[in-house]
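Title: [Solved] Undecaprenyl-phosphate glucose phosphotransferase 3D structure

Original question kept below for reference.
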Amino acid sequence: MILSDKRRYSKYLRPISIFFDILVITFTFQFFFREHGLNYLHFGAYQIACWAIISYFSGFYGVYRYTPPIKIMTKLMGQGVLFLLVVIAFFPFAKHTVFSGQAIAAYLTTVFIIIGVFKFLMFYYLKRYRVVTGSNYRTAIIIGYTPQAIRLKEVFETRPDYGYRFVGFFSDKKSNPEVIGKTADIKDYILQNNIDEIYCSLNEISNLQIKELVEFADAYKKVIKFIPDTDGIFSKNLKMDYYEVFPVLSLRKTALHDPFAQMIKRMFDIVFSLLVVILLLSWLTPILALLIKLESKGPVFFKQSRPGLDEKEFFCYKFRSMQINERTEQSVVKNDPRITRIGKFIRKTSIDEMPQFFNVLKGEMSVVGPRPHLWSQNNLYSNRIKKYMVRLYVRPGITGLAQVRGFRGEISTNEDMIFRIKYDVFYIENWSLLLDLKIIVQTVVNIFMGDEKAY
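Solution (posted by the thread starter after getting help):
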């Protein structure tokens, strides 16, 4: 099963906005602090780091097609106040810099005028572009034919600048020309017509149907939102959005959906991998290459096709630990006769995985994440285990939460894979940089303490 991904230019808008803002804050301050002895490199790096942290926690880039302008203005003001404080906080530690309130005021005023104008121009241009060209739209269906569902349909039709195309209702309880099918028809209809978003009236479907729809949306990367027919369904896993004055509930996205979280994780991956390559692999690789070559014929490195991010193929690198054989798609079992003597050692200590830091630098893997499975395992379990495909929403990792919890190595039963998937999904839904660091530390501890499943 291949995950579909309808390509739109909208996925580039947030990265473009982030890049533009960083360029503005990086180059603008140089015009206002020329005569104040400011270290441009230190101040520039400090600004970018602070801007990233403030933006991440304030949700500064959480602007969507339905976001009201007043909320954008509020975000700008909040970001401006916090950024002002961190800019001022820099100067007491810059001993050779002359503090100037006038220069800071002129600098920040210029920055936020430029950023604000750019943000509003892009926001309004895209709204106008959707109306005129019909581009960048999202197709939507509504489950349920209730007064609230009808009101939402009217919002879609009266606000074309939101960029939604309403297709029709699905309902088991009501009959109407606008009702195009029953709830049993929803999944096939969504896949056949490439529907993007599902809006669900909670009065019309059961809890079991909701659960199945959420799992379906996870598997096929569809957006599912809920129409609050009652005030009894709020929970910490739901967030409220407003289309004009109409409330819609959405499942909260994971931290790894956030561009800043992705940027932070990627920066960490690059820095950590470079340190490993320079400090360890630079001298360890020649030694292992000699030992591997002395024991058996064949290449030093072994590469194998694996499913990566969004199920795209990549080649996973390892130090070769087995005799050359044709059973490359067969997973390793305990006391596998194919494994060489040096192979037993490097597999036991996980040294064989270290070339995957090059995969990380290439952007194919992450230091921490769900381990990439064989294609045979991927094809076998993708339809057997619920939420299996969720693990393909992120880059695969050299190590992961499932591995440090004891679910590594051979998969002999369905239960082995089920527990591995549970830990992978938990990691994705609860990611933090601290969690990555804990998993890395635990991985190192397991290497020295020994792991009975490392063979």
